[in-house]
C-alpha cells in the first residue's frame, strides 16, 4: 500500500504540492488528472523519491520513501518511473532495448519474456527494428515495455499515451492495464485524457494548482462532479443558473450537453445561435433568456434565431447543484 501524508513541496519557494494526502491499495490503478502545470509530474517524482519534501511523508508498505538528500541513487528500488522523455538506446533493436532491463532471474527465459512484453505493447513485428527508425509513439511503447521488464511493485507513468494515436491507444491501454492487473502491479499514472481515467482507473486524483481537489472513483466524479473544474475534465459542461428553471431558485447546476434534450414541454426556453455538425449529430450553441450560453446535442440541424424548448431532468437539477 502507498501512503502519501500531508506532502508539501516547493521548487525555489514556488509551492508546487500543497498538503497532498491519499493512499493507494496494492494492485489498484490510480490516475492523477488535472490541467497542465497543476503538479502531476511533481507528485509522481515525489512518490518515486526524486525530491526532498518540505513537509509530510511517503510510505511504500512499511518503508519510507526518502529523497536524494538521503539516497546516493535516487528512486525507490521496488518502483519504476516512466518520465515523459524516454531513455532508449537508438542504435540497438527494440528487443535488445527490452532485454537490457530484464532482471537476472529472468535471463534464462529472456526471449519468452521479451516476446510477452512485445505483445503487451503490440510491437512483435518490430522486435528487430532499430529504435532510431521508430516513430515517437512507437518509442513511447518501447519505453513502456522497459519499465514493465523488471516487474516493479509500483509503476509510475507520466502521460504514457500522449504520443500514441487514438487507433492504437485503445488496444494498448487494454493490453497494459489487463497485464498489470494480472501481475498485481500497482500503477499510478498522470494523464490529461479523461478516457484513460474513465475506463482504466480504479481511483482518480484530481489536482489543481498543487492541491488535491478530489479523490474518488471516476464514475462518481463523472456523475456527481463537485465543481465545474472536475466536470470539465470529462467534457464540455454547462454551469447553468437555477433561476432559469425556477424564478426563486438560487445557485448553479452542472449539466453535460448530452443531458439537455429538445422537447415541446421543456423546462428551459432558449434561442439558437449556431449548430455545428460533429459527425453523429449537431452540437448546438444557444442562449437562455438571461443571456447565458447553453450547449447541447441535437439529432437535427436547428436554424439560427429559432426559439426552442429544452428539457433537463428534475433529478439532475437536484443532484448536480454546484457545491462551494
Ligand atoms: N524543475 C523545476 N524547477 C522549477 N519549477 C518547476 C520544475 N518542474 C516543474 N516546475 C513547475 O512546477 C509546476 C508543476 O509542474 P508539473 O510538471 O508537476 O505539472 P504537470 O501537471 O505535470 O504539467 P503537464 O501536464 O504540463 O506535464 C509548474 O508550474 C512547473 O512550471
UniProtKB/TrEMBL annotation:
Gene3D superfamilies, per the entry: P-loop containing nucleotide triphosphate hydrolases (3.40.50.300)
Molecular function GO labels: ATP binding
InterPro entries: AAA+_ATPase (IPR003593), ABC_SmlMolc_Importer (IPR050093), ABC_transporter-like_ATP-bd (IPR003439), ABC_transporter-like_CS (IPR017871), P-loop_NTPase (IPR027417)
Pfam families: ABC_tran (PF00005)
Entry keyword set: ATP-binding, Nucleotide-binding, Transport
All copies of domain ABC transporter, residue ranges: 2-234
SMART domains to which the protein is assigned, alphabetical: AAA
PANTHER family assigned: SPERMIDINE/PUTRESCINE IMPORT ATP-BINDING PROTEIN POTA (PTHR42781), SPERMIDINE_PUTRESCINE IMPORT ATP-BINDING PROTEIN POTA (PTHR42781:SF4)
Protein name listed in UniProt: ABC transporter ATP-binding protein
